[in-house]
Amino acid sequence: MIKINCIGxxxxxPKRELxxxxxxxxxxxASEKELLDSAHTLKKDNWQTQKDNGVDIICSNDFSxxxxxLDTICLVGAIPDRYKSKENLISFKTYFAMAxxxxxxxxxxxxxxxxxxxxxxxxxxxxxxAKNQNFKLSSDKPFKEFEEAQKLGFKxxxxxxxxxxxxxxxxxxENFEQISLLNKLLPVYEQILSKLNKIGAEWxxxxxxxxxxxxxxxxxxxxxxxxxxxxxxxxxxxILLATYFEKLDKExxxxxxxxxxxxxxxxxxxxxxxxxxAIKDKVISLGIVDGRNIWKSDLNKKISEIKNxxxxxxxxxxxxxxxxxxxxxxxxxxxxxxxxIKKWLSFSKQxxxxxxxxxxxxxxxxxxxxxxxxxxxxxVKDRQQSKLIHSQKVKERIDTITSKILNRKSSYAxxxxxxxxxxxxxxxxxxxxxxxxxxxxxxxxxxxxKKNELTETQYESFLKEKTIDAIKKQEExxxxxxxxxxxxxxxxxxxxxxxxxxxxFTSSGWVQSYGSRCVKPPxxxxxxxxxxxxxxxxxKFAQEHTKKIMKGMLTGPITILQWSFVxxxxxxxxxxxxxxxxxRDEVEDLEKNKIVMxxxxxxALREGLxxxxxxxxxxxxWAVEAFKISAAVVKDETQIHTHMCYAEFxxxxxxxxxxxxxxxxxxxxxxxxxxxxxxxxxxxxxxxGPGVYDIHSPRVPSSDEMKxxxxxxxxxxxxxxxxxxxxxxxxxxxxxETLSALKTMVKAAKELRSS
Length: 755
Ligand code: GLN
Ligand code: ZN
Known about the structure:
Bound molecules: glutamine, zinc ion
Shape: globular
Largest sheet: 8 strands, parallel
Oligomer: single chain
Number of helices: 27
Strand content: 5-15%
């Protein structure tokens, strides 16, 4: 008998109920009891949904008030000293202090660092380990959640983040390997697992997604032993080891197969099983329905895939490829996506229904099931053949990529000379990254316009006022290269997606990004093209209102790709190249309209790196190609800028140079310019604007502090190639600190010029 195994369900609530109550709680407008009650309702509904849709192995401890890694930090008591927690069980106060920082009299600390969970857009809080780190069971969340479900009549499989992933995702200040803490950590896992066993868990899921990454021999040598220990700790409870997001390397897979765990979950959407025949006496959980995307599965195909599995395994479970955390809740709530497209989609609840129909078809098919499968086949076929998707013209364009399309006419050196003569910018030219404060009046006006409470003319004249005002402010501060401020944009991807064909948007497609924050990624369903100019109106308007240079501002193809739900019927590369041509058309139009500097932002270039190092080269090749297609259409005299805001460039520095942007602005202020050494070692050939202050905080650094950073940069890099700018867009800041920081920045640049 095939069974359905749920390995994680979204938790923010179908209508973002958790977000609402959390934010109230943080403001002091909801009590702890209200928070717990709402959480209880959400969990109960999730369990009920799983049960109603035929899930045999329902999960618990996939709920979190903020983040599952933070939950694990609490569970094993790895609370950094600065949070001053002496609690036996971690309180909400400490928990949210780690999540969001605390600014009370007793506790004035910043939050833990946050970073992306593998290659998803979900962010986890990064554990911090000291060399003499101790661990101690400090939370009862998994036990309480199990019992909470039990009281309601649900028998669940608790999910626990595994010790290897937990340690390897952490960071250390001192120089030692996190994995050396394993022996100190395992006794806490012993307590956790034996307690889960005692309270009656039949199965326990241990998540070890880190195992899909290429591992060194040290880690590989620890896998089997660690898993065997976990199995022993669990007593009569069974252990399901869950891996996801990629296939396992052979050596890693071998270790797992040869261990004593009772079951293994594989991601079969992104990977496969190397050695199925070697698996004996274990349950295998086949992750066959995509947990990371929103497309309906081709069920007949999935069913025959399972039938064709040549294996001796009797116990087969089916599941989503990874936790459904990365998929929105329920398509039934959706009211914005056109109905022709809606029938191609499947959100979390629909994915359970898909699994249920696979199960029924394989176990004892029924009339209802046959009808469901027929409808599925027809929807899948409809999508494949839809006229909405395919544009011959767009496809032909990506078949004709030549070196002329990819490359600027002349080398950087030649372009730089030409540009220097035209622009006549001073040493250390100053600029900003694009957006200016999106104050509440801007957001309100947009909301009113969307609700038809403002006419298009009214909204437009409001935006014009804002833009002119931002230009005046920049002129007063005496910034050298201006931006229009991006007041007309809601979001740097959505704004473009809304104007491109091949994109659609949802009303309900929320996925958790971090804590209470959710995003609603656009859906790229078809061939992408640009019916008409997208940014020319505002860039041209802004340029006409100043004698200074106005930078045009675009989002790059990889960032648009990375922050959307991407179609799965063609390689990501093809979609990226289509977007690249759409941006190219825009760049060309901006140039025609006298915009002489154009910035193409690619903040997501690095996060698109595949999990396996062996796949990096291929990805970077097409990512660079996409950027170059967008940019290389311009004359030598037109200056192309790009912007990236993260600090780890080491891995991708060759690719960054290969973009051949004339100027790159990067985030450096938080890492105190350390990353510039990467640029120096590599002898980065073009111009660089290392961010001279951190826009993520309202703090305004002194001009001495900024000067120090610029001087440090000019020791590493030719001073004639250095720009002076903040480290990212200013949209989340308020005006007073923005003005004061920019004045300071210009002052710093001017003083350095004259000295
Ligand atoms: N131009 C964008 C802005 O200033 C860049 C945003 C980003 O890098 N994330 O808002
Ligand atoms: Zn940025």
